[in-house]
Design goal:
This protein is 42% helix and 16% strand. It has helices spanning 2-9, 22-29, 64-69, 76-88, 122-139, 149-156, 162-165, 187-192, 196-214, and strands at residues 48-49, 55-59, 95-99, 106-107, 116-117, 143-147, 170-174, 177-184. It has a six-stranded mixed sheet. A two-stranded antiparallel sheet has the order 4-5. A hairpin with an 8-residue loop joins β4 (106-107) and β5. α4 crosses α9 (196-214). The chain is globular, with a radius of gyration of 16 Å. It starts with a helix and ends with a helix. The mean pLDDT is 94.
């Protein structure tokens, strides 16, 4: 009954440890029942990468491959992101990558059918916020690259529109910390685009803004 009560509260706060580094945070997140999404996902998918990264990349939520492997950005969108980062002059190995929501939300017509990504609600994003706040506190990045509208709403509020601010450097207070952010599209949007090459070039151009902001 305790888990159900915590789920109903829609907050990860009780599960976030007050002490310890990223490894302790990752271990604690594996048992998070802060909202109902944990019931259906295979596992928690926590952030990974350089613990002292100058740049943190924040996406929406894990996809199907991420849910199965337990790591963020390991599917097709992640491979495209790594290529775009390298082309823009940002070493993917020197970044920290995570998601606003740590569990895969999906719809599935039948048990053995493909799991279709479903966007998390604002309530689910807010519930997961304490994990992201602690990641920011521990990594202390110089810059956050916001990947897509959902990540933008999680960090900057429901009025965020990626098309209005993509490729610009924003200065905002995020979870009580002054942060610099560069929003861009999510790499999965590039994969879905009719003109994939043009969409990819746009992503690289936005990431070049991030690279210059770090130089």
């Amino acid at each position: 009954m305790a888990d159900k009560a915590t789920e109903d509260a829609y907050t990860a706060e009780p599960f976030v440890p007050e002490r310890g580094g990223l490894d302790a945070l990752r271990r604690a997140a594996a048992g998070c029942h802060g909202c109902p999404l944990h019931r259906y996902a295979t596992q928690t998918v926590f952030g990974t990468g350089d613990p002292h990264a100058r740049v943190m990349l924040v996406g929406e939520q894990p996809g199907d491959q991420e849910d199965r492997q337990g790591k963020p950005f390991v599917g097709p969108a992640g491979k495209l992101l790594d290529r775009a980062l390298a082309e823009a002059g940002v070493d993917p190995a020197e970044a920290y990558v995570t998601n606003a929501v740590k569990h895969f939300k999906f719809t599935q017509a039948e048990p053995r059918k493909r799991r279709i990504h479903k966007a998390p609600s604002l309530r689910e994003m807010t519930a997961c916020g304490p994990w992201l706040a602690r990641e920011l506190e521990l990594v202390e990045p110089e810059l956050i690259v916001v990947l897509g509208a959902t990540a933008g709403k999680a960090l900057l509020g429901s009025s965020f529109r990626v098309t209005q601010v993509r490729g610009t450097v924003l200065e905002e207070e995020i979870h009580g910390r002054p942060e610099r952010l560069v929003p861009t599209v999510h790499p999965s949007a590039v994969l879905r685009a009719e003109d994939r090459e043009a969409a990819y070039r746009g992503l690289v151009a936005d990431l070049e803004v991030a690279a210059r902001a770090l130089s």
